[in-house]
Amino acid sequence: MATTTKIRPRALVRASGGPRYAVALAVDALGTGLLRPFLLLYGVTVLRLSAPVTGTAMTAGVVAGLVCMPAVGRWLDRGARSTVVAASMLVRVVGVALLLATPAGHVWLFATAALFLAVGNQAWPAAHAALVATVAHGRDRDAALAGGRALRNAGLGAGALLATVCLAGGTSALRALAAVTGLAYLAAAALAWSVHLHAHPVAAPAEGGEAAPVPRMRALLAANVVYVFCLNVPEIALPLVLVTQLHASPVWSAVVFVANTVLVVTLQVPVTVLMSRFSRRTVLALAGVVLTASYLGFLAATSLGPGWGAPAVAAVSVICTIGEIGYAGSATALVTALAPARVLGRTLARFELSTGFGLAVSPAVITALAPHGPAALWGSLAAATLLSASAVGTEKEAGGRRPGDHGHRARADA
After folding, report:
1. How far apart are CA 126 and CA 90, in angstroms?
2. CATH number among 1.10.760.10, 3.90.280.10, 1.20.1250.20, 1.10.510.10, domain 10-194
3. Angle formed by the axes of helices 280-302 and 218-227, to 10°?
4. For residue 303, what are the contacts with CB-CB under 8 A and spacing of at least 6?
5. Which residue from 20, 110, 221, 346 could staple onto 354, CB 3.0 to 4.6 Å apart?
6. Which tens digits make up the pLDDT trace of 235-246?
């Protein structure tokens, strides 16, 4: 059993990259919250594109943005850390600038802007995880990754709330929000770059020596594509079910979203620290079981119909969020523990490819299953997630060895 890490705020900030880097994360998240939830609305109302065209352009941007990940992984393996984080933010500055320069009706320029935004959004998680893995190790690193996620969710929520208040200003307000987002990304990039954190690349093995391979993690990567659906459940699946199937007020969708944000912000670090007494793989598998139970709970809640169905869905969403917290607190931490130091960047890039793919396809899968009824949607998600949890819990690395920090064999808590 691993020793449980205690929550020490100052140590947590240091392990997360230091005060300036924490401020950079907060500013970046605030800017993202101002625009990302309303990018579709920007395309429809400001640029006068149809909703299907806007959605297709955004999806194409996300999918195309995945192509950058192998290059990001190689860059990280050459030792770059804060520079890659800053670059991921600067790329989004270019995206916002293109967005502001796009005339009404020009879908290709909008798609290009969405591509630059997607490249930054795809590159940032791997760069951030590599930076934290360089500063902190073991369970302190897990807590630091959890702290970064909590801080990011707080910034996203605050930005989205502020943007919602400003939307009464119409199209001019959306343009102003985009401009503020670009400035926030620029300020965050400057702060992140000022950290000047660079890792010394691990020397290549001598001639005839065995090079550390990038872990295949086939079951983990495949399972991650399914696990990541939980991130779109509060934003896509539940609003769709509440409005179209239960005919509930949109207020219930807002309640679910706010509750999810508040729970992640307040519980991500404590739950991650509490679960550090178990192996990361066990926690990840357990998170899959909790998510499966929540999906079955949504199935039962929707059977109640209008009236009691909406509050029941809101109650079950708390269980889903607990599963999401377990997943988020263990998945990236497990990957960093399995990766030899020499290929940490490429390993994280491969993991983020699976995450990005899952986030890209989940809206289409959810919206395709929902019209066929609650059993098709929640039954399919439950079965796929339970199968994924089983695969994660039973996967073994080649030769039974699980490399950990700095190329050494991982401890029993990997």
Report:
1. 16
2. 1.20.1250.20
3. 30
4. 309, 374
5. 221
6. 889 999 998 889
